[in-house]
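#random but structural
TW: two for the price of one
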Amino acid sequence: MKIKIKNKYIGKQEPCFIIAELSANHLQKFELAVDTIKAAKEAGADAIKLQTYTPDTITIDSDNEYFKIRGTLWEGKTLYDLYKEAYTPWEWQPKLQKLAEELNLIFFSSAFDKTAVDFLENLNVPAYKIASFEITDIPLIEYIASKGKLIIMSTGIATLADIEEAVNACKRMGNEQVILLKCTSAYPAPIEEANLLTISNMSETFGKIVGLSDHTLGSTVAIASIALGAKVIEKHFILDRNLGGPDAAFSMEPAEFKEMVKSVRDVEKALGKFSYEISEKVEKSRVFARSLFVVKDIKAGELISEENVKSIRPGYGIHPKYLKEIIGKKIRKDVNKGTPFGWGLIG
């Protein structure tokens, strides 16, 4: 099972697809967005992802209690004010797409309403992201699915039933190109709430490629996810956390991201394949395995005992499993201590 996105494949036998999320880390400065995308490429990202919304397409301008944020990094702000600060101006996005493609980065975005989908269709993006908080917006998911593009769907606030309904919505529209991302929608997310074991279960349950959208601090969770089958990793990316901004606290700086990418690639190498074959290098090491050796001088006609023949390193004698078989047999000739024991020494 694999899915193509531009010039890359995502699938069980493919390298993990690593996404740098620009999110709000441009601080409403176009040149900062440009520099961040360039740094993401340098840090080893396969793709850069934006978010396509305006404050008015995602919420309304209201300060009543329903629209005030509680219990998060953005305590006390209204949703409208947060999104006004965080959104990526739409007029930037074609320019950022052009830059990304010149850098050989795959460019796509999260669409938060139909107008965003239409806008991104004009850019001919190769995929759509569905953010965790939009996974229950079935009409939006159906509209996105109808475009026939790859859909990468975060599941941070979703129940099992929510995920099933969203996947079925795509299926109804004839779109089976869905990748699910295990996600914990807390900012930053506690490491003990990552629940990475869900990755393999999600893959089995839905028969889909599964990855990770990670909001924990550091790279431990992302790296560990590879061993559990994650084929996509998404992390928020920032040039410098000291710049501040809505997402700075849980975003990765370039050096951290680069080290994470290296660790992911190392883990992929280490996972390798199911194999009991011995490599050439290991074969050379087998010489230091145990075998039977003469450990005391033995005269011709003497009996072999556990005192004069033992299982020791290295591996030039016969297999240790034959020790019981040779005990009590006569030595055919004089043998010096340190001689590998072979069948030809038995009289």
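TW: number two ↓
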Amino acid sequence: MSINVEVEKTGSETNASLIRRFSRRVQGAGIINKVKGGRYKDRAESKYKRKVKTLGMLEKRKRVEKLIKLGKITPRF
């Protein structure tokens, strides 16, 4: 997705005022917020890592259930 912002110099407008007008247009279009928001976006976790994490969670759950049955720990319902 691309958002274009254009400004043209009018008559006796100074360069500083042209840059100021351009900056306001960019802020109004929301481009800066969109770019800043995407800076820290994490990549999706790989299929392998999700699988390993799920297997570890299932193994831990199995261990806890065994300890509950043996009466070594109390359930947290």
